[in-house]
Design a protein that fits this description.
By secondary structure, the protein is an all-alpha fold. It has helices at 4-30, 40-52, 56-87, 89-104, 107-118, 122-146, 150-158, 163-200, 206-215, 219-247, 249-258. The protein is built from eleven helices and no strands.
């Protein structure tokens, strides 16, 4: 019998050739022209050519810069707002309606507004990424802190612990798992936010290449950009998962000890 870790590795490896076979059979059976759907090997050659001989690397760097800067700022804002909201019902009633209004608005409708405010450069895309990242971080932290048993806080009061000690020894460890889960979700949302901003108006980036490929009817450019975006999103998600396991390893050790 295969272990869960082995299945996580083997199943995607098995699925990849199956997808390629279905892809090729679909093209052959329905006689799909290459300008609508190229063969997998032709698409791979085009992608490598864009990476080696084209300027796709610079577009990847642009998108990654928007994502990393936006995620960093978004996490900071989300953590600060989440902690403030979790500790104050009055502030929650004051700011949450505005936060919900902004978050429920379609991001594609906000992108032109951000471009008008911040221009076609990185700033408008970073602002959009910050917007989509900060909300899940904030909500996860609020839920995590408010789910802490009141008896734990009562114990800290008996021990005469300061606010800083309560934060370091109680609130931060208890909310760490929820925060890291929010960051994993935020990373995928950040890619979406950056690409939406680039597709609406940009001078570079993978979203810009998607728009360019669509306007020039270059299916290879469109599919190559989608493939690179999906690959980057997967890598970011896996890295976030590894970081989560590293930081929360003490929880697994405690479970093993109790068992």
């Amino acid at each position: 019998m295969l272990s869960s870790k082995q299945r996580k590795i083997i199943l995607p490896i098995i699925m990849f050739p199956i997808i390629i076979i279905i892809w090729k059979l679909y093209i052959r059976l329905f006689n799909i022209p290459p300008y609508l759907l190229p063969q997998p090997e032709d698409l791979m050659k085009s992608t490598i050519d864009y990476l080696v001989n084209g300027d796709m690397i610079s577009h990847i760097n642009t998108t990654l810069q928007e994502v990393f800067v936006g995620v960093g700022i978004g996490i900071l804002i989300g953590l600060v707002l989440g902690y403030i909201v979790a500790k104050s019902k009055f502030i929650e009633r004051f700011i949450m309606p505005f936060v919900l209004i902004i978050q429920t608005a379609p991001k594609i409708s906000l992108a032109p507004l951000f471009i008008l405010w911040f221009g076609l450069g990185l700033q408008s895309k970073i602002a959009l990424v910050v917007l989509v990242v900060s909300f899940p971080i904030m909500i996860n932290e609020v839920v995590a802190i408010r789910s802490i048993d009141t008896n734990v806080f009562n114990l800290m009061k008996v021990l005469n612990a300061s606010k800083w000690q309560r934060f370091i020894y109680i609130e931060l460890p208890y909310s760490m798992q929820a925060i890291l889960s929010g960051i994993k979700v935020a990373l995928t949302q950040a890619m979406v936010g950056a690409v939406i901003g680039e597709m609406i108006g940009a001078k570079s980036g993978l979203g810009y290449l998607l728009t360019l490929g669509n306007e020039t009817y270059d299916i290879n450019l469109v599919l190559s950009s989608i493939f690179i975006l999906s690959l980057i999103g997967l890598i970011l998600y896996l890295v976030a998962g590894l970081i989560e396991k590293r930081l929360l390893g003490w929880k697994e050790e405690n479970i093993d000890i109790v068992a």
